[in-house]
Amino acid sequence: MPELPEVEVVRRGLVNWVRGRTIISVDVLDPRSVRRHLLGPEDFAGNLEGATVLDVVRRGKFLWMPLVEAQAAPASASGQNTQPAVAVMAHLGMSGQLLVEDAAEPDENHLKVRLRLSPSNGMPNELRFVDQRIFGGLFVTSLVPTDDGGPGGLAEEPLPMIAEEASHIARDPLDPHFSFDAFYRRLHLRKTGLKRALLDQGLVSGIGNIYADEALWKARLHYARPTDTLRKAEALRLIEAVREVMLDALAAGGTSFDSLYVNVNGVSGYFDRSLNAYGREGQECKRCAGVGLVSLMKREQFMNRSSYTCPVCQPRPRNGRW
DNA sequence: CATTCGTCCTGATAGC
DNA sequence: TGCTATCAGGACGAAT
């Protein structure tokens, strides 16, 4: 399940393989993977073919590659670099992968879209989008100016533009432009549960179900805690916990940047790590065990998904008692 | 306006 | 053995 660290690993890996390369041709093998491109698969392919990839940029879990048309590339006549107008957007959803591979490699079982790239120093010349469950997809989006410092998302050279389809996504807690004060102000105004807020990509981005549970556990907060009762120190503790969990995962997933396969399999990178909360139903809470208490992790349905908590160190809030 | 809910998908697994 | 039911969950648009 790709969350921010997994998507960032993909971005870092991908940029080395595709920056500066031209898309020669496009095969859409399953139109459902481009359903967010409303003008259809042919239009999608037409937008990409002949265009050159300038960069790989991320905002939250959205990843995009700004494109320049081949004709527009020699912009030296004006002495200015042509600003890219469009980008190809990728969202991995639940099971999406972006793989850089040689054309001789057999098609993956769930290969959905193939981009053939211009030859470059013997690098593999296909970028493939593989997606078993089709929650993810590719589509073309326009680029619009940002008000400040670019898209963020740890991009190495942020452009002062953001993909329109990602412009409603908030900055993530690792983004240098993330504002804790702005986050806390908005959080405090909400009338909802804490985990629901954490998963709202318009409030703070990059957090999915697994990291939400891990961060809440680390901060000793319950998922149903009303957001308008959260004190500033608690919110700060939570954001710090999110950062720590994400940085740990990033470090764990960042070992295969130079692999031929861009590692986008969040599961493989993640589940090797020791989880403190997610998936630990019935097992002892690692923190309580350390202080001599016995507390078994609990699994509950919340928002149609599983939430894992320790009943001792993450007590459920009592009505109106905050 | 903010918030919540239903929908999109497939494969692994449990239960009969 | 082979069938069906259940579960996993990110993001969007509809409903409240």
Overall helicity: 25-40%
Range of strand content: 15-25%
**SSE series:** HEHEEEEEEEEEHHHHHHEE
Q: How big is the Rg?
A: 21 Å
Structural class category: alpha+beta
Number of helices: 8
Q: Overall 3D geometry? A: elongated
Distance between the termini: 34 Å
Tell me how many strands there are. 12
Uncertain segments of ≥5 residues (pLDDT<50)? 255-261, 264-269
Average of per-residue pLDDT values: 86
Walk me through this protein's architecture.
- This protein has 322 residues and is an alpha+beta fold.
- The chain contains eight helices and twelve strands.
- The protein has helices at residues 4-18, 41-48, 180-189, 194-198, 209-219, 232-253, 266-270, 286-290, and strands spanning 23-28, 51-53, 57-59, 62-69, 86-91, 96-101, 111-117, 126-131, 137-145, 161-163, 298-302, 305-309.
- The strands form three sheets. Strands 2, 3, 4, 5, 9 and 10 form a six-stranded antiparallel sheet that branches. The chain has a four-stranded antiparallel sheet with strand order 1-7-8-6, with helices on one face. The protein has a two-stranded antiparallel ribbon with strand order 11-12.
- Strand 11 and strand 12 form a beta hairpin.
- Helix 1 (4-18) packs across helix 6.
- The longest helix is centred in the last third of the chain and has 22 residues, at 232-253.
- It is elongated.
- It binds a DNA duplex (16 and 16 nucleotides) through loops.
Write a compact overview of the structure shown:
The protein has eight helices and twelve strands. Strands 2, 3, 4, 5, 9 and 10 form a six-stranded antiparallel beta sheet that branches. The chain has helices at residues 4-18, 41-48, 180-189, 194-198, 209-219, 232-253, 266-270, 286-290, and strands at residues 23-28, 51-53, 57-59, 62-69, 86-91, 96-101, 111-117, 126-131, 137-145, 161-163, 298-302, 305-309.
